[in-house]
Amino acid sequence: MNDGILSSLHYLFADIIGDDDDTPPCVPDNLPEGTEAIVRAGIDRLIEYQSQSYAQLYVDRLCRFIGKPGVDATLFGEIARLMALRMSYEDPIRIAQLKLTEKKRSGERRKFRIDELIGCLPAVVAEPVLDVLDWLNWARAPISVKYSAKNRWGIRRLKIEAGLKRWRLFSIRYGKERVWVERWLHMINRSLIKQPAATLAIIRTADMIQGYGSPYRHALSDWHAIIDGLVKPTFDGKLPLADLAGAIADARAAIQPDLRQAALKRRIAEIRAEAHSKAEPTNTAA
Q1: Any domain includes 283
Q2: Among 60, 116, 146, 147, which residue has the least CB neighbours within 10 Å?
């Protein structure tokens, strides 16, 4: 079990046993110049989103890159900014939290999939429910949820929904997000060794994944297609791709709102074929 997984589990169990004091994490020493404000903003955001211990997990993940060869202020700042955004992913609980902070009392409806709502519950509860929904073929059915702060009853309901954040770290969604963040960080580490020029492009793939519902799931699938089709095979030495950053940009430009990912998969296949073609030795006549 690697250090990233151990850190995540440590802060998960801190929430389980209630071992989360009121002391916010300290900003790490020796940050690259000009990045302290970004880190402070990330800490504040994640305390509000979840807890002090969750913000400490953010700090511990950042500490892996402090003083790391090849990590300048630009790279570190982008890691800090994007990791804070990804660790505060938008789920029904987060939307309730944000609604409560709005000065204008308004109401709106958000569309989720049923499995997305159930996925916010602790896995021990959610998994058997999802099994039944899958069996009924209802898991992907859309559902509209009203978020309203127009009256005291609406505000009370929002407070109850926002209060469910205590259970967020036990949810199916959190487990998947933790795995995603650790894979993203792993790819950044590998890039620093294998293709430093591509590191910023890999860091910025995090902004592909936003929101909730079907758009979120499609974006996540697109991200994995690029990582599995271009990034990982390049690092593994199976794809002779000299300009990985350019290839990532080309692939991202091909993304369309298509469930089958036809255009993206076609462009990835073209990039791979071009790379192998360029790497083939030229045959000369005897």
Answers
A1: no
A2: 146
How many domains does one find in the chain?
Answer: 3
Same domain, 183 and 219: yes
Segments in the chain forming alpha helices (H): 3-16, 36-49, 52-63, 73-87, 92-101, 114-118, 123-136, 152-163, 172-194, 199-203, 213-226, 232-235, 244-253, 262-279
Pull the structure tokens for residue 181. 């963040």
Q: Residues 176, 235: one domain?
A: yes
Contact 123, 175 (CB under 8 A): yes
User: What does the pLDDT profile of the chain (286 residues) look like in tens digits?
Assistant: 455 445 444 545 555 445 455 788 999 999 999 999 999 999 999 999 999 999 999 999 999 999 999 999 999 999 999 999 999 999 999 999 999 888 777 778 888 888 888 888 888 989 999 899 889 888 888 888 888 888 889 889 899 989 999 999 999 999 999 999 999 999 999 999 999 999 999 999 999 998 888 889 999 999 999 999 999 999 999 999 999 999 999 999 999 988 899 999 999 999 999 999 988 775 444 3
